[in-house]
Design brief:
Chain A: This is Acyl carrier protein. The complex is a heterodimer. By secondary structure, chain A is mainly alpha-helical. Chain A contains 4 helices and no strands. Chain A has a single domain, classed as ACP-like (Non-ribosomal Peptide Synthetase Peptidyl Carrier Protein, Chain A, Orthogonal Bundle), CATH 1.10.1200. The chains are: A mainly alpha, B alpha/beta.
Chain lengths: 79, 478
């Protein structure tokens, strides 16, 4: 699976998203499920799935699906 | 609830009559605007004047973490107008039910394109009731807060003006709040803890920094740095988040006070955050309260936190704890476990489930049976050990475990147990989809984040010899 596909699955699972949500264009607080509580569940799930650890700055800057993907690429996760 | 003693009279000398100290300031992080002194007093007086013109009844305020919400809240308080503070994200059907039951004089913070029946749009975000007929709320009543966790009809806790002022004053005393403090809004204002942070700071001439994006978002921390926030208030899940974020107070040189309430934080985390903040010369306060007490009842002095790890602290100045044992007697001897009873000037007037009850006076006489189980130590420090009823906490919000089971019974037999800041609901013979559906039902019914409900399939429940579900065994499996 590609990085984007894996990340999409993590988003759907961690935030319990419905099928009609446009995950790849999702931004923090666009939907009720991605509030501060959802954010920490999401960060934990991404860390588990990709075996990475985010720094404080990364946790508070992870404001969209796209940013999360770029961070993972920056941490050396392959496409 | 029947008070076991004659109604006590609480002396609260020198209590201010206004929440707004002349030096108090509001900083709006979004615009950078700083409002204080005569400007702030003038804006508050302006909103107070608007409230005076409304028909009789309570005012519903859907409060966000923004200037206009806070000015309205303060205006209502100054005008002596009872206000209910509501979640701005609350579903429309829940709001409609509350409007029908309480017939508010007005609702603010709502869309004007879809006004409730019997109301007319007012301004850009308000509804005003058409009828001039309405119940006049009791003159002592200042704020109504929804009780967390009731799954049926939400009810309001009735808080008097004196209770709010007494509690804000006692909190400011034990935390040492003065005009140099800058408190960011890390909690919503319709949540009693968030409201009390606002009240206790404004009362002592401090600054409240209005920022609504929350402790996991960049704008919050940018505002902390830019406007020199001095404290941070959090419930247990905030501290779990801060730990995961590897929060380092050295990066925020002005932020030197941490406060924690809203449920019991794991003692390891209390010790860890106390270490982090004391290492940079700061202080950590662990506190205990309930909305019914406006809300604070106890605070552990920062200097005794390590020695009293796991304690909720001694009662606030002006308050006292006792323990009600199974035979109904109340004791203050150390080491006796029973229901924690609090007495103080900050205890609610009672509950309200409908408009008529808004006119009622104090029905509890300053005595609050907390429903928590605990004991006092030899220094009068309270230790909470559990709940009388089966109650869990989801991100700081009280939920009845029996109610959760009832809500998902159409999906299967359920057994709910507390699990830290979440609840685990075991669902008999459930599929993965069934579990997800159940979590969604619970999240929607209680208006709490879906990740607070960990629904797991189980193949039959462990049973006690009596045939009842063995909840202890289920808790051990969490």
């Amino acid at each position: 699976m590609s990085l984007n596909d894996r990340l999409r699955d993590v988003f759907v699972d961690a935030l319990q998203l419905d099928g009609d949500v446009d995950v790849e264009n999702l931004k923090y607080r666009d939907i009720d499920a991605w509030d501060s509580v959802g954010h920490m569940a999401l960060v934990a799930a991404i860390e588990d799935e990709f075996d990475v650890q985010f720094e404080t700055e990364q946790v508070i800057d992870m404001s969209s699906f796209k940013v999360a993907g770029d961070m993972l690429r920056g941490l050396g996760v392959g496409e | 609830m029947t008070p076991p003693h004659p109604t006590p009279h609480f002396e609260t000398p020198l209590l201010p009559t206004s929440l707004l100290h002349p030096a108090a300031r509001l900083r709006d992080a979004a615009s950078g605007e700083l409002l204080g002194g005569a400007d702030l007093a003038g804006r508050v007086a302006g909103t107070a004047a608007e409230f005076t013109a409304l028909p009789p009844g309570v005012v519903f305020l859907r409060v966000g973490l923004d200037l206009s919400s806070v000015l309205r809240y303060l205006g209502a308080f100054e005008a002596g107008r009872a206000v209910a503070l509501l979640d701005p994200a609350q579903d429309r059907d829940v709001l409609d039910d509350l409007v029908a039951r309480f017939r508010p004089a007005a609702v603010f913070g709502v869309a004007v394109d879809d006004v409730a029946p019997g109301y007319a749009a007012a301004g850009s975000d308000g509804w005003v009731r058409d009828s001039a007929e309405g119940v006049v709320p009791h003159r002592d009543l200042a704020v109504l807060l929804p009780t967390s966790g009731s799954t049926g009809n939400p009810k309001f806790v009735r808080l008097s003006r004196r209770a709010l002022l007494a509690n804000a004053s006692a909190i400011a005393d034990v935390l040492g709040i003065g005009p140099d403090e800058v408190a960011p809004t890390s909690l919503p204002l319709h949540y009693s803890y968030g409201m009390s942070v606002l009240n206790s700071h404004l009362l002592r001439g401090a600054t409240v920094l209005l920022e609504g994006s929350g402790v996991v978002a960049r704008p919050f921390w940018d505002a902390v740095t830019e406007y020199g926030a001095t404290s941070l208030a959090g419930v247990p899940y905030h501290y779990e988040m801060l730990r995961r974020m590897r929060f380092d107070p050295a990066k925020y040189p002005t932020l030197r006070t941490l406060t924690q309430a809203g449920g019991k934080l794991r003692v390891e985390l209390v010790a860890e955050f106390n270490d982090r903040i004391t290492a940079v010369g700061g202080r950590m306060f662990v506190m205990y309260g309930q909305t019914e007490a406006a809300p604070r009842m106890a605070t552990v002095p920062a200097g005794r936190l390590v020695e009293k790890l796991g304690s909720a602290g001694p009662a606030l100045p002006g308050g006292s704890f006792s323990v009600r044992t199974e035979d109904g007697s109340e004791v203050v001897e150390p080491g006796v476990t029973g229901e924690v009873v609090y007495r103080g000037p900050n205890v609610m007037m009672g509950y309200a489930e409908s408009e008529a009850e808004l006119a009622a006076g104090d029905v509890v006489g300053g005595v609050l049976a907390t429903g928590d189980l605990g004991y006092l130590d030899e220094d009068g420090y309270l230790f909470i050990t559990g709940r009388l009823k089966r109650i869990g906490k989801v991100f700081g919000n009280r939920v009845s475990l029996d109610d959760l089971e009832e809500l998902v019974k159409h999906l299967g037999a359920a057994a709910a147990v507390p699990a830290g800041d979440k609840v685990v609901v075991w669902l008999d013979q459930a599929s993965r989809d069934g579990c997800r559906a159940a979590a969604k039902v619970l999240a929607e019914a209680l208006h709490l984040h879906v990740t607070g409900f960990d629904v797991r399939p189980v193949d039959g429940f462990p049973l006690l010899p009596s045939g009842k579900i063995d909840y202890r065994s289920l808790e051990a499996q969490v």
